[in-house]
Design brief:
The structure is a homotrimer. Chain A is an alpha/beta fold. The first copy, chain A, has three domains: 316 residues, Alpha-Beta Barrel (TIM Barrel); 209 residues, Rossmann fold; 56 residues, Golgi alpha-mannosidase II (Immunoglobulin-like, Sandwich), CATH 2.60.40.1180. Chain A contains 16 helices and 25 strands. In chain A, the strands form four sheets. In chain A, strands 9, 10, 11, 12, 13, 14, 15, 16, 17, 18 and 19 form an eleven-stranded mixed β-sheet that branches. Chain A has an eight-stranded parallel β-sheet with strand order 7-6-5-4-3-2-1-8. In chain A, helix 5 packs parallel to helix 8. Chains A and B meet through helix 2 and helix 4 of A and helix 7 and strand 13 of B.
Chain lengths: 675, 675, 675
């Protein structure tokens, strides 16, 4: 388990005692309450810059030292943050270059957070000094177990410094301006550049239609942010601290390709704020589960749930209370998917400013006799019961491909539907179909290896990067099963269309060619009708919407056909034997049931291990594995109890109640079995 | 009746004869028509600056003098406006500082109106000179009865001059930067200021999440505007005119706390443009009635209806004609609620520019043989019949609290629901419940005294200013009845959360503590079920939405409880005896019927005077009082006639038809009775 | 047929071979495919500036010469574009003045297209030089048949150069500032100008409520664009080329009054991208047909369909495939309405940038064995069959008035409904009613002559320009029939309201006066009830919405009356005999059926020639005429076949199938008959 550094399941979260220094009793009350709630960790120092360096180069670490020591004395460890997520006012006043510039080329005023220029030499130097000071003082403190670098990185800056850095980045990538002109198809609309110095970042008041430029800009923004993280980490390492690092990522954040961060941090962590009770809990859990799996798949290691809300948030349109039991259920879902922590934002609620009503373990009332405090304590106790799970892996044999850069390109492309491509939703359909069978799923991107999987779903992979088609070809040749959909293999990695037919490079693998794609209005649909005697034994009719691919088969078997419109009778799903594997192609945006049927039948053919035979509606089954044991989490996301047959002869229930074949509403059962 | 200066019911409105100077016949026709329509007043000079000072320091008052004289000779008095609502072009060209700067720090170009920097020394000096000249010439003219200062003040300016003034304002308020930092909770997100000079006004491209800053900025904007009004009035007084002053306020205008203007003007006036015929007239009348009562309650004196539309407006999305009788009904509603005038925008319609299609007494056709002219004439006649009412008061024994600063804070707070708090709608529910009983209602803010009332409703008073909790405590101790709701007493006057439990300072008065608040999605609801044998005799079930407070009682009686969700059985309404009074607490956002039931039963217990026993649906009953008489207005907002028993033995009908116990559709009856 | 220069029906479109110079095979393949598809024309050079002048004053025309020659050798002619629709980057970098400035006075960055300052001396000089070079080299090439000036002109610039030009334009128009002040009613809101130098263009951050200013600005923008076109054409003529010129106009483009371009170009052409299959095809065809007729009516000559999409676009929200037969049907609709070409954007699809997925004759796949290629070929064949039609006219005896400046004024006016005037939709109702009878219709503006028509519909002519009322009066006096509606004759040509009653100058002609106009909410309606024994024999009840005019009649006959509201019984439609003609007035926004009934009965009285007796639903009938023949196009816009009686005794079917009185779905029949 190299590169992984957390030794026990953590229970804790964001803590800002610098807001309460005026009343020393608060710290002591908090420590007492933390112990009561089985909290063993706090994340300290996020947004503390103004308290650590109140005036330029005048540092004050005393208050922090006191707090770290008091926590350590009480058995509570600290994940220490660098404070670069928000700047003090004096810095923006003295060095306006640290302020970000928007795409209209207007510099922001001081305010809010997460809005620094990552290129600015001043901001880099100030960050370096601060991190150095922090690391020198606390980087080897026994109470400090890890570094939390900055906070929720995001956004982009269009200042002259960033423009210059962008040009350098392009020069390195393309070497000559002719190669850039070809890659971006600049001859269109007379947009040819005579030199790199002519290039400017995309802007709604300038150029926003050159897709190659837009895409490279997004890549540059990710690279710039990675570079800034590297810069922050380097300062810590240079100052002699070797504790592991993490950055806290966000739910479905489109602005950064998180995969690119896998080598600059030691641990992946993320902030998880689902809107429970808005739709059926199970649907929220599925959606949320996929995000957990994305995070885990970045490094294929356990990760941390860095933030979650113990009560209701305050920034969602409607901030609903979690019903009794929901916090426990959601917290253990994270553990089930591979997290080694349950952490909250926030341990004590702020008195003022924009997050003062965000839920907390200790609220404004200030007592420990609250419903939320009891729910948190229950989570703490369960984590103690499950300590042996720390560091165990999730071993997925199936994967779904979900690629950031593909999404950027496809959503910018101006294609058949400019509102309503539903990329994420389409990925989820394959993911859900696998999860309903109790299969653990990796959610990977195009740069990751495929060979360890039996089945890989590749929905809407509009863009093929770096010869991805060859990866697929080899995977199928060697016996893998691939399920690809419409609108795949259309463009290369600078969004230049492939000539000669699509899906590019895979027409023989799938035995088809896509000839046209029809877009449907929101109120339209078509149907799929199974072909009699098809080899997958499809039997049901299904509805599709939005996009319908019109393919011609060469060697593929037609499994089902369209029922309507002028392309009635053309294929909706095909299967092609290629090498030792199978290549399935799905032609249209079908409803969930279609995916459920197709994937269930493909999985049946594949003889994959399934931990539980039959899973009732609303129940999620997930497995973590050590070298000796498997830990099967069975979570009932229904509010009511369900009947479910579990074979307990060779296993032990280490959490939860299972009596008379029944699991209570919102309950979690953890089964331990020898491998 | 000190501080009140109007001696007869006025009938008239905005008049811009400077637009017609090219044709002298127009003035003479207008005077003839005014007399025909029983118009006895015109408001002159609004937006006349370019005609009064066509070039810098070159004044031309001749045309105005002629007009005032001609009107005076014909018995028509003038309310004279200062022209500062719009500037001439030459001023903006020569002195760009008079142009406002928006929150993104961009200076506006010249155009439109109501967009001057109120700090600009140039604008203040130009205004001072203009007002001085006007006052010298017309300030003691016998035809001039009052001053109309500028027009519909509003908006804000973020120019460097205003930034500096804001910093001065903050320095005066907080004295030290530490106190400001504490009050605004600036430690959150590292936002601490090292000095007042670091502070900038809120901006969407800078700081907008620091609620204390946002709130103080709004207060500053009000104070700045008040200061500008004071400046305008001073010029008039310094030039020797002692006529009363007014500013025309607007319907539900959030930008300024109108209560703060009560000492700088002599008379309150406002502009009233309800959208009649959009929903049931009675609902519009209720909504509108509350605005009348807000205006009256600012000074607790008769006020003026400064603008209303004799026909259809032109700036509403759909500008509907008023149906026959509507103008008369709406005009007398103003009188019923305490207005001593019915004034129109506009007497003669402009030929061009953005309000050319706004309804007028005299339209582009130009004849007096129009339907609208007849409707106006009918109003004029009725006002003449009711002249004895001038100066009489509305004596309310119940009040509803509706506080501007509370609204600013609550809507900015980022709390349980960020779209859909429904503060105004919730206030209206209490207001409507009282009004349906025929009770006159004051609509007051937190700074006003409570002691003169029997019952005070305090809905959603999120913020307590200046120890407001003590005012409530004393009021109840002394025998008052208070009805407070959920989401009250949460923060102090800089939006800093109270610690130790809410409603702050009143947990013993209400005998409860609020523990959590649940937010409901728009499609969700809960119910209230009465507790058997409750002392208020509540018997009905009611639906609630949006927000549900979860309270624990200490000494309070539970009147009713939730029917659903995990908090079923917790209270929805409580009653606590405290001192000699009663404190009711309503836990959720209930439908109107709930308020109707609760308030009807509370009023029944209170033995308040009710002018009419039983009021049919759609009828509004309002009372004005002199030292000797009461004048009861009974207005039928239904298009059809209604049966209604009125005890006419000791009263006299001085307006309207009442035969066979019937009031006609859209008719108004005025009853005069000895006190 | 003076001023008209095209000698055969063209089939072709936009072609950008400069994007494929790296592969010379592409041109040869394209030529082969063009011939296969009966393509006889390409439009070359649109957006080629960066390839023609890669660096300042370094021209490269070699590639273009090769291409024109190769096409010519293969019998394919060229319409040659000036490249001013998009600039090279070097130009914007060196001369920022060529970049447009928006109404907030921010200069755009480089990017996209169609965004040059048309005043900039630099841009004019660069364009002059480029056009001169192009014309010298290719202006007399036998393969070049016409000039395509720039591309889809549009937009506006607020830079200092344009401000100055606007002031000059105003000075020329008004001569004195007093006349401008009067015309714009600047006394309102103190907006008087002391001199032309004080005037600035309208802006949302300055003046946007002065309707006269807004209107003159829009006129200026059109004039500026016309002037730029004139400048471009002059360069070509000065260089010795006399080939005809055109600019490609757009569907319902509000930004420019296209009628003003009629004298600066030789041929009208436009780009037509209907959203087929979104609603019933017939409705789309009607809408589209009106746009064709607008274009034809600008010069009353055949025009060109310069762009249309052979497959699906990529810029519509949903880019749907055309169903089989649709392309042929839509292409021939253009011919039927007066086009002498069917041209596409684009012949070969781009590989990259923002239009890479826009449908093309040759797509990324690159074969000629596609469904779209077959559809295009079918169009090519039909055009060859119809070659004798080239240059024939459409001779309309009825006209509908649709005026750009009227629309600008009315939509800016702030009147009875500020969202939902439905001008275009109201014009369409009259247009559709005529078209359903098979009558050809001119769609003209106020500046055009009326005398050649029998019936003229004038819906919602809010603004009368240049004594238009006299034109109407004379037309009716001389025996014409006019059908006018509510909200007509309200303002003069600077948006100044007429005094003394409306419709201005025509109250005697129509025998009515409009007294008030009621606006209805979206959910409201009223009805029309025919008067017994009315002379038009109206018999049906109809529903109206949005706007209801309340008119008083003097001499007019009331045909029908309102059924509801307080104006029940007032007229909804009137008829007045005036001179030798008839003047109908429609009072409210009625449903289509009302127009169908009224117009059918008026046409019946008029004895106009109707080419076909009875037209089934969904069929469009259109006629082109030469001096000897008439060509009647009968197009079935239903997907199913219809029965229809056509008298073929004196005619010949030159296209399409007509058997057993049946026309197939989506088919076109062309009938040739002697005059």
């Amino acid at each position: 388990m190299k590169n992984y550094y957390i030794n026990s399941l953590l229970h804790g979260g964001d803590y800002n005692p610098e807001q309460w220094l005026y009343d020393p009793c608060v710290l002591e009350t908090d420590i007492e309450y933390f112990k009561k709630a089985h909290i063993n960790e706090v994340t300290l120092g996020i947004f503390s810059w103004a308290m650590l360096e109140p005036e330029e180069e005048q540092y004050d670490f005393g208050w922090m030292e006191t707090i770290i020591n008091r926590l350590y004395e009480n058995g509570i460890s600290v994940i220490l943050a660098t404070p670069s997520g928000a700047r003090p006012k004096w810095m923006s006043d003295k060095y306006p270059e640290v302020l970000r510039v928007d795409e209209k080329r207007n510099r922001f005023l001081y305010g809010m957070r997460h809005n620094h220029c990552y290129t600015s030499p001043v901001y880099r130097e100030k960050t370096r000094k601060m991190n150095t000071e922090l690391a020198k003082r606390f980087g080897n403190h026994p109470g400090v177990i890890a570094w939390h670098i900055s906070n929720e990185y995001g956004g982009e800056c269009h200042c002259p410094l960033c423009q210059e850095a962008f040009r350098e980045w392009l020069k390195e990538k393309y070497q000559t301006i002719d190669r850039l002109n070809f890659a971006w198809a600049t001859t269109f609309w007379s947009h040819r550049y005579n030199g790199f110095e002519q290039i400017e970042s995309p802007s709604l008041c300038g150029e926003y239609g050159l897709h190659g430029l837009n895409l490279d800009w997004k890549r540059f923004v990710t690279d710039r942010t990675v570079d800034f993280v590297r810069h922050e980490v380097k300062a810590i390492r240079d100052a002699g601290s070797e504790k592991p690092t993490t950055i806290n990522m966000m739910y479905d954040y489109k602005g950064l390709n998180y995969h690119k961060f896998k080598d600059v941090v030691d641990i992946i962590s993320w902030d998880n704020y689902p809107q429970w009770h808005k739709k059926a809990e199970y649907l929220t859990a599925m959606d949320n589960g996929m995000q957990h799996d994305i995070m885990r798949s970045i490094k294929h290691q356990p990760y941390l749930l860095m933030e979650s809300c113990p009560a209701a948030t305050n920034w969602q349109p409607v901030s609903k209370l979690k019903k009794p039991g929901m916090l426990h259920l959601a917290s253990l879902q994270a553990i089930a998917h591979g997290s080694d922590s349950v952490q909250y934002f926030q341990l004590r609620q702020s008195r003022g400013s924009s997050e003062k009503f965000h839920g907390a373990v200790i609220d404004h009332y200030g007592g420990s006799d609250t419903r939320v405090f009891d729910e948190v304590t229950r989570v703490g106790k369960s984590l103690e019961q499950l300590q042996e799970i720390v560091g165990t892996q999730v071993e997925a044999k199936v994967a779904v491909l979900f690629d950031w850069e593909n999404r950027w390109a496809m959503e910018d492309a101006q294609g058949p539907r400019n509102k309503g491509l539903y990329y994420k939703e389409t990925v989820e359909k394959s993911y859900y179909a696998f999860r309903k069978l109790g299969l653990d799923v990796d959610v990977i991107d195009m740069e990751q290896a495929l060979e360890s999987y039996s089945i890989v779903a590749i929905p809407m992979l509009y863009m093929f990067r770096d010869g991805f088609e060859n990866k697929v070809r080899t995977f199928v040749e060697n016996g893998g099963t691939v399920i690809m959909t419409y609108w795949s293999g259309i463009v290369d990695d600078t969004d230049l269309c492939y000539l000669g037919g699509t899906p590019h490079g895979l027409m023989d693998v799938f035995g088809i060619r896509s000839t046209e794609i029809d877009a449907l209005y929101d109120w339209e649909s078509n149907t799929s009708i199974p072909v009699k005697g098809n080899s997958l034994k499809m039997t049901s009719e299904w509805k599709c919407k939005n996009l319908c691919d019109l393919v011609k088969t060469t060697s593929a078997e037609v499994l089902a056909v369209y029922g309507e419109d002028f392309y009635a009778g053309m294929p909706t799903a095909t299967k092609n034997r290629f090498g030792r594997g199978n290549a399935y192609y799905i032609c249209a945006d079908f409803e969930q049931g279609f995916y459920d049927e197709v994937i269930k039948k493909i999985v049946k053919d594949s003889k994959l291990f399934v931990p539980v035979k039959s899973i009732p509606n609303g129940v999620e089954v997930t497995t973590r594995s050590s070298s000796e044991n498997k830990y099967v989490f069975i979570q009932n996301f229904n509010m009511h109890s369900v009947k479910m047959e579990i074979d307990t002869r060779n296993s032990q229930i280490i959490l939860g109640n299972y009596k008379k074949s029944t699991i209570e509403g919102f309950d979690t059962i953890v089964l331990k079995l020898k491998r």
